[in-house]
Please model this.
Amino acid sequence: MTQPSLPSQRGAEAGRRIGVGLMYGLWRPRVLGAWKLPATGPAILAVNHSHNIDGPMVMGVSPRPTHFLIKKEAFVGPLDAFLTGIGQLKVDRTAADRTAIGQALGVLTAGGVLGIFPEGTRGEGDFASLRAGLAYFAVRSGAPIVPVAVLGSSERPGRLIKALPPLRSRVDVVFGDPFDAGDGTGRRTRAALDEATERIQKQLTSHLENARRLTGR
Model:
């Protein structure tokens, strides 16, 4: 079986630089705890998802290049080549996408940073409903999970585009402490993944609550 090609690390670094320029040009990011992301080695960023800018925002402010798993519907027209060129991963959410899974695990095996929206789709951004994919990647790879809370100001008037914070408004990005999802046994059974998902949800929810207290959001 042919191994899926790894996304471009150089492309992801270019994407990070583009994200820095766009995010700081359009909004006023305030980044807290970025130093908590391990400087080297594999890591998984688990990001809440309430704004369309969440991925680009985290990509831009993260200290390390990040490869996000992004729904294939976003890879349309010129965006297909662009997102692929900056090292992002196309995933089919309607089935077990073996290519995307292989690429994501390849990123972690190579010591890179994988970005995931564990809620699957954009919603309330409160980590209330997690998919099992995050637990699978964390348990399978042994990579630590770094929770990331993106807190914008979508509740305020002034948005020119639906689901985006008002331009030049403050957007807080809060990195949390890394943690391991597994129980230390190395089990990869369905029961083990269910238990890991429950542990992850508690950790992510706790981080989000702390981030809201810290930022006053």
Notes: The chain has one domain: 9-215. Residues 9-215 form a domain with the Glycerol-3-phosphate (1)-acyltransferase fold (CATH 3.40.1130.10). The helical segments are 9-26, 54-61, 78-85, 98-109, 133-141, 190-215. The chain has a mean pLDDT of 87.
